[in-house]
Design a protein that fits this description.
CATH class of the largest domain: Mainly Beta
Strand order of the largest sheet: 2-4-5-10-6-7-8-9
Number of strands: 10
Number of domains: 2
Radius of gyration: 20 Å
Helix content: 10-25%
Distance between the termini: 34 Å
Shape: elongated
CATH superfamily of the largest domain: Umud Fragment, subunit A
CATH architecture of the largest domain: Ribbon
Order of helices and strands: HHHHHEEEEEEEEEE
Length: 202
Amino acid sequence: MTLNDTIAFRIRQSRNSLNITQQQLADEFNLRFDSSINRGMVSKWESGKEIPNTHHLIQLSQFFNLSLDYMVGNIEVRSYREIPFIEYPELSHNRFIYKVICFVPESRSADEHNYFYMQHNEIFNDIAQFDRLLFRKQDTATNNQLIAVFVNGEFMIRYYYAKNNIVSLRSDSEHTLCHVKDICIVGACVEIVKFLDTNSSL
């Protein structure tokens, strides 16, 4: 099955599960996202004649409450589910500019407590404000990984590079050099979920 066929099937299947017509989907989609799609566009998406652009695809996944991985056929489980966040409650403390989002994809449910989401309020070139970052809990990292880390007790999310026990931690606006013994890595980013729907509540 091609990517077009997969996306077409997912949209058609999801719309039918809601028992709504193509016109109703277009109307409700436009109302929620202040968009201007029409029944003809939905028909072309569902037939595989056209593929939604990235913006519309992300909004469709939000509309149907599906993961993007599911929409494009990377996984066969449909959506996300809420779980308790138990191991690192200090990450949600008021003094940090980061907010823990307690969602883990169902595809990872077998080891769900090894993952956590965070909302990022700092700007990177490739990570927008309020994008959700999925971290795998681990205490080591490889060069050029995006990590969640404590540096002398201060929590931050930075790109990691280490050589000869000297660690470089960088964002687009800051660059920190420190000794490896001064850091405590709590996770490595494995997925970035782009946030485009300004009407959604995180």
